[in-house]
């Protein structure tokens, strides 16, 4: 009759046990030196060799011809214990014998000497399932058993065993078997059983075993029944893990922020009978693998789930920051936990996918962080573009001067010969008004349409010292300099927040009204308050010598006519030297 691989290839000696050398070597020395204890407690996860080592220890202490602490597996004692014909070595399941009456019966029976071997051995599996009265009934005989009695307790949940039991036993902790050790054992068994197992197939089976050699052998047995070569593709197909490819496709949609494709794929899985909770769970497992591979690319391979090949993980994890994986993992964990209380699991899964595709929908600090990160990425791209343009311009050389000046630029004044007194008429104001500068004065032409007498009637300005005479510049620049000087005067009376918004504005003074032009509604809303109004009003009143009204508007100031430019020039002539109109 066919026997399962994990039963057929169960270790018979301590030397055959895989991955638990820290335990088997100690037990071998105890048996060889005759210093075995009366009670042992083996702890660890499933499939790591607890029950196997317990049976080997029971054979070793009763073996008639032990070899360096290992049983010979040939004497009548070893053979009787192996086939279960000797009742002096008894294996009990505490899950089905957890009552106090069963423990009392065991205690009353244990006092009798063994019939066929030297020591009576009780192997109690899943001992944490015993009830509290049953533990109490076991205490006395476990503390002071007869010389011929040995207890070997095994459990996967050590925290459920009372401290009174722990203190009476020698405890050995079985660790998970590494994927490399599992793969080597699977390759050896496959070779002995004439199974065509490829290295990549052994690798993926060892990862799916999750540290349990028994699980690995069971998976190999299942794949071998399908026949043919057992490679990674065959393992995924036989074990029904081909759906992992769809999970990888869903993760790819999430990483490229394609919410539409992600929702359509989720609907396809849902229509095919897939539970949305299982979908989110598989996404969480894949995210964990990607995060571990990003954090520990070398040593973290043993921590992976094994459901995805290296090529898929490399393709999905390329150019994705670790912070994104952390956000995906935390969001999936929270959504998976909340599904238990959900009234509509499908809707909650869809909302989770939307949050995974766009962090700004999370509504917490993650949303703000995502927006800031996008701005930083945009600024970085802008800097790269500017650097490339500057580098290209430097290689090409400076562009030739344009023939026509832009309307936005303010052209410099050109020097022209002074007008004589016998000029028959005043010329119109050209696009670039001529000007002649003489020592101690500046001469401007009178624009067409402006009365000479009105200009002469304007109040004369006191000449400024020659050392303080600024360079000649256009009227528009003079007005802009006046607004900047006004804004700088107000900054000392305003907090930094208002100063930044004030630098974004421009202003014009018409009569007793100062109009401040803001670029947008946000800037206008920040500046339109009593504090800013007070500072601007007082500074403008000082500069103009009269009270002014303050008006805020959104947009750009209207272009001034030549007459308005000259009036503004005369009005704020304190910034200039002696001005003489000819």
What CATH first level of the largest domain would be assigned? Alpha Beta
Overall morphology: elongated
CATH architecture of the largest domain, by name, is 3-Layer(aba) Sandwich
Number of DSSP-assigned strands: 12
Mean pLDDT: 77
Distance, first to last CA: 125 Å
**Could you say which structural class the secondary elements and strand pairing correspond to?**
alpha/beta
CATH topology of the largest domain: Rossmann fold
Q: Give the domain tally.
A: 4
Count the DSSP helices: 24
Stretches with pLDDT under 50, minimum 5 residues: 402-479, 574-582
The CATH superfamily of the largest domain bears the name: P-loop containing nucleotide triphosphate hydrolases
Summarize the structure.
This protein is an alpha/beta fold and 582 residues long. It contains 24 helices and twelve strands. The strands form three sheets. Strands 2-3-4-1-5 form a five-stranded parallel beta sheet, covered by helices on one side.
Describe the structure.
With 582 residues, the chain is of the alpha/beta class. The protein has four domains: 5-173, Rossmann fold; 179-238, Orthogonal Bundle (Helicase, Ruva Protein, domain 3); 243-367, Up-down Bundle (Zinc Finger, Delta Prime, domain 3), CATH 1.20.272.10; 475-581, DnaA, N-terminal domain (GMP Synthetase, Chain A, domain 3), CATH 3.30.300.180. Helices cover 49% and strands 10% of the residues. It is built from 24 helices and twelve strands. The strands form three sheets. It has a five-stranded parallel β-sheet with strand order 2-3-4-1-5, with helices on one face. It has a four-stranded mixed β-sheet with strand order 6-7-8-12, with no helix packed on it. A three-stranded mixed β-sheet has the order 9-10-11. β9 (506-510) and β10 form a beta hairpin. The longest helix is centred in the middle third of the chain and has 32 residues, at 365-396. The chain is elongated, with a radius of gyration of 45 Å.
């Amino acid at each position: 009759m066919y026997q399962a691989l994990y039963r057929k290839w169960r270790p018979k000696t301590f030397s055959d046990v895989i991955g638990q050398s820290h335990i088997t070597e100690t037990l071998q020395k105890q048996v060889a030196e005759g210093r075995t204890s009366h009670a042992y407690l083996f702890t660890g996860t499933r499939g790591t060799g607890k029950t196997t080592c317990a049976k080997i220890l029971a054979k070793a202490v009763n073996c008639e011809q032990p070899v360096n602490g290992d049983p010979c597996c040939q004497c009548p004692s070893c053979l009787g214990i192996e086939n279960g014909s000797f009742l002096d070595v008894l294996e009990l399941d505490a899950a089905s014998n957890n009552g106090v009456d069963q423990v009392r019966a065991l205690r009353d029976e244990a006092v009798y000497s063994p019939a066929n071997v030297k020591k009576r051995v009780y192997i109690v599996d899943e001992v944490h399932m015993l009830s509290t009265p049953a533990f109490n009934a076991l205490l006395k005989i476990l503390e002071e058993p007869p010389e011929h009695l040995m207890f070997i307790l095994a459990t996967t949940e050590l925290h459920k065993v009372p401290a009174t039991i722990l203190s009476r036993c020698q405890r050995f902790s079985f660790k998970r078997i590494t994927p490399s050790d599992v793969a080597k054992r699977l390759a050896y068994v496959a070779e002995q059983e004439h199974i065509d197992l490829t290295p990549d197939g052994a690798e993926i089976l060892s990862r799916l075993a999750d540290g349990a050699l028994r699980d690995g052998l069971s998976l190999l047995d299942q794949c071998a029944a399908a026949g043919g070569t057992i490679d990674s593709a065959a393992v995924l197909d036989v074990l029904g893990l081909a759906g992992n490819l769809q999970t990888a496709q869903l993760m790819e949609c999430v990483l490229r922020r394609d919410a539409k494709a992600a929702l359509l794929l989720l609907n396809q899985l849902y229509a095919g009978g897939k539970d949305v909770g299982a979908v989110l769970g598989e996404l969480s497992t894949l995210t964990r693998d990607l995060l571990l591979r990003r954090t520990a690319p070398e040593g973290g391979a043993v921590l992976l789930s094994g459901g995805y090949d290296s090529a898929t993980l490399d393709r999905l994890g390329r150019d994705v920051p670790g912070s994104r994986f952390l956000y995906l993992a935390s969001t999936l964990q929270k959504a998976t936990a909340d599904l238990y209380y959900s009234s509509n699991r499908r809707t909650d899964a869809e909302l989770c996918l939307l949050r995974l595709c766009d962090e700004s929908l999370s509504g917490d600090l993650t949303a703000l962080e995502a927006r800031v990160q996008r701005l930083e990425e945009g600024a970085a791209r802008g800097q790269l573009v500017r650097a490339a343009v500057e580098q290209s311009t430097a290689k090409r050389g400076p562009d030739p001067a344009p023939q026509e000046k832009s309307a936005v630029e303010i052209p410099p004044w050109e020097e022209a010969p002074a007008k004589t007194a016998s000029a028959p008429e005043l010329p119109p104001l050209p696009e670039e008004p001529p000007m002649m500068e003489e020592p101690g004065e500046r001469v401007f032409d009178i624009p067409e349409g402006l009365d000479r007498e009105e200009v002469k009637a304007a109040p004369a300005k006191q000449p400024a010292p020659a050392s303080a005479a600024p360079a000649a510049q256009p009227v528009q620049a003079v007005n802009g300099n006046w607004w900047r000087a006004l804004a700088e005067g107000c900054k000392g009376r305003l907090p930094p927040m208002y100063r930044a918004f004030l630098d974004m504005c421009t202003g014009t003074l018409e009569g007793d009204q100062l109009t401040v032009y803001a670029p947008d509604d946000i800037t206008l809303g920040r500046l339109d308050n009593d504090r800013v109004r007070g500072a601007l009003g007082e500074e403008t009143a000082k500069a103009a010598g009269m009270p002014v009204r303050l008006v805020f508007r959104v947009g750009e100031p209207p272009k001034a006519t030549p007459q308005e430019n000259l009036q503004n020039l005369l009005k704020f002539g304190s910034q200039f030297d002696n001005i003489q109109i000819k």
